[in-house]
Amino acid sequence: MKFRSTGVFFFFLFSFFIGFSQWAFSQELITGKDSASYAIGVSVARSLKASELPPLNNNAFLSGVRAVFENRRLRIDSASLNDIITSYIAKAEKKETEVSTHIRRDLALFETPLALSLHKNTGKAAIDKMESPQLKQLAMALFSGKYDKKYRVATFNANLKPTTLGQELMIGDGYSKYEGITGVYFPIGRHLVLVSGIEPGKEADLLIPNWNRRAPDSTKPDKDPAGWGIKRQVFALRNGANIIDVEGYDGLAYISYYVDEPGKQAPLQVHFVNGQVNGYFDLAKNNDKDWNQLIDNAIYPVIDAVGKHIQIAYPAEACKKYAYGKGVELITQYDSLVHLQHKLLGLIKYNRVPANRILARVNYNYYMFRDGDGVAYMGTDPGNAMALVVDPVRVVKGDPCWGFSHEVGHVHQLRPYLNWGGLGEVSNNIFSLYGTTSFGNKSRISEQKNYQKARDSIISRKICYLQDNDVFNRLIPFWQLQLYFAGAGNNPDFYPDLFEAFRKQGNAERASQRGGRRSNGGWGDRGDNPAPYQLNFVKTACEVSKTDLTDFFDQYGFFYVGQFEFGDYGNYKYELTQEMADKTRAEIKAMNLPQPKVDLTKLED
Ligand SMILES: [Zn+2]
């Protein structure tokens, strides 16, 4: 996946080019440098245009560009740059429509601001005179006693911001941004939503993502100029009446109400006056009969379902075909796969399991992928993945089990403590192996003979594991630690304890930074050189397991002294000196720990 910082890079480059646009219009492209510069400008501008950035203050951003090029002190803290840009873009994409006086007048006929009942003296004549078609329809239904409030009137608890969760757990912000499932469908057109409970200084939005978005050329769905990500309409909510003008595409509504301390926040009350009810499935409240009713009666092609750790937005048709009568089983299986990762991460042992969920959604661009919004699966041919990810029996078997665990594993990578340069497609697979083998699937690294390959390639050639290009070979030492401690090492909490130790290290490091501020977004900075994190891993693994693992790590080149460069979602320069290696060896020796009972490098599953 691409990181948000790419956008920031473009942002500054683009600013630079706009600032010097006078030059661009008046000069010819003479040298190779001129042409290349021009080409970069065009390419950057195109990608910025596609990203739909809101208008900028040219002078201010030119000043930012110059500050960087002239190495001047920045007027904004480097660590805050990303957050500022992200929140500016988020604010700019919000839509708000002025509420007319006739809506205010009509609302006076109801007893409460949420318009759940009519004033006793509101009669048929007064209703006939109402001007807002939405409120008039509501008043008629209330008057005749035929208003069904189910889904239309609901309470929404605040959720912990995914970025804040990411900082607490030292993972990314990959948890769901769509937790406020409403079960209400909004066709294109004008709708009225009444809200109460937004406290001063807090923000709540109504989101309408386009789950049904298709690529313009259905034969090349992955070549979509709009990209693969979620396109959505965002409406800022205020207490009282909100006009929701749905334009371009219809969709299911979600309340986005994310805060830093959800426990301290009173819930929102929302009345969707005239959306239509699609409904949703909640594992905590519903059974398979409800599930069938939901997919039989859905008025939008996609349905929402939510479990303890997962939420899905899948086509009703696929659910009917592959999971009819099996909603409970489907959501339970997904929950179990996420639960296993929480277990390995030590979130259960250390009472840190988030209330947040991970989103799995349908998409119409690509087979299976993960982005900042969760996991996405293809809903049509070519590359239809629905049979694999909707049938509850198949979800925990083979490729779908691996795929889901792999992608959710990315969401849970601890950065940088167990995701330094070179582990991008490695440390998430500790979770994939744990998830798939826990469900009785064969170990992928065993089937692919990576144990032998790693011995031949890394141990025999005396290279550093990071110099092996096969991500599965690089995974071997990390999984052999699990095999040993789950078996002969008799310490099944090895990884849970190790992850907790890393979280403590991360918190201590953050607290020591200026003012203890949260500087790294959800992601810790991986730095350029993986070696310090690698040595920290070695040392902490010995500490936590109370075992001297020096020889084991030595064989896989964790003490490899030297320099080399490599790529892993960015460029890295490995640099480990004799001094660094000696220091770590000495620190482990000073712990006076027993040797492991067996040679870990021989372990296989
Ligand atoms: Zn991956």
TrEMBL record:
Annotated segments matching region Disordered:
507-528
The identity of this protein, by name, is M60 family metallopeptidase
Per the database record, which ranges form the Peptidase M60 domain?
177-486
Gene3D superfamilies, per database record: Peptidase M60, enhancin-like domain 1 (2.60.120.1250), Peptidase M60, enhancin-like domain 2 (3.40.390.80), Peptidase M60, enhancin-like domain 3 (1.10.390.30), Peptidyl-prolyl cis-trans isomerase, FKBP-type, N-terminal domain (1.10.287.460)
Q: Give the organism, scientific name.
A: Niabella yanshanensis
Superkingdom: Bacteria
